[in-house]
């Protein structure tokens, strides 16, 4: 069975948005296990357990917060890309979610580690 790592901001842990995103991912990738760091890993104090989970998965799906990814999600996506994993960003237009293939990351907007850290780059550059 394939496994997906769901990289997302702690700002949306335990919110309706987290539940909606998990539901969408499950629908898009049926018969695939989803690793949610909020519920499946918990607070570990180090990025290492999360990067190991990324390495153990086949696909990484990341979620942005206010158009950015925080330092932790950035590191998880960077690690997935470095391992040639299939990486997608989850976005929403109106009330519909959709996925875009991630081709890279951009630190031009680096702000701090809390949320506004980096930007996801997709196939068409946005």
Short description:
The chain is of the alpha/beta class and 126 residues long.
Could you explain the architecture of this structure?
The protein has 126 residues and is an alpha/beta fold. It has a single domain (3-122), classed as Rossmann fold. It has helices spanning 16-28, 37-41, 48-56, 71-82; strands spanning 3-7, 33-35, 59-63, 86-93, 96-106, 119-122. The chain has a 6-stranded mixed sheet, with helices on both faces. α3 packs parallel to α4. It is globular. The mean pLDDT is 89.
Topology:
Layout (H helix, E strand, L loop, with lengths): L2 E5 L8 H13 L4 E3 L1 H5 L6 H9 L2 E5 L7 H12 L3 E8 L2 E11 L12 E4 L4
Parallel strand pairs: 1-2, 1-3, 3-4
Antiparallel strand pairs: 4-5, 5-6
């Amino acid at each position: 069975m394939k496994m997906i790592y769901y990289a997302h901001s702690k700002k949306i842990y335990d919110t309706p948005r987290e539940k909606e995103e998990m539901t969408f991912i499950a629908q898009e990738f049926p018969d695939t296990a989803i690793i949610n760091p909020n519920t499946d890993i918990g607070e570990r104090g180090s990025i290492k357990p999360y990067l190991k989970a990324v390495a153990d998965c086949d696909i990484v799906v990341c979620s942005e917060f206010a158009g950015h990814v925080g330092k932790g999600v950035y590191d998880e996506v960077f690690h997935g890309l470095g391992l040639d994993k299939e990486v997608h960003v989850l976005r929403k237009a109106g009330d519909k979610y959709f996925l875009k293939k991630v081709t890279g990351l951009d630190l031009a907007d680096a702000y701090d580690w809390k949320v506004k850290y980096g930007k996801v780059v997709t196939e068409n550059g946005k």
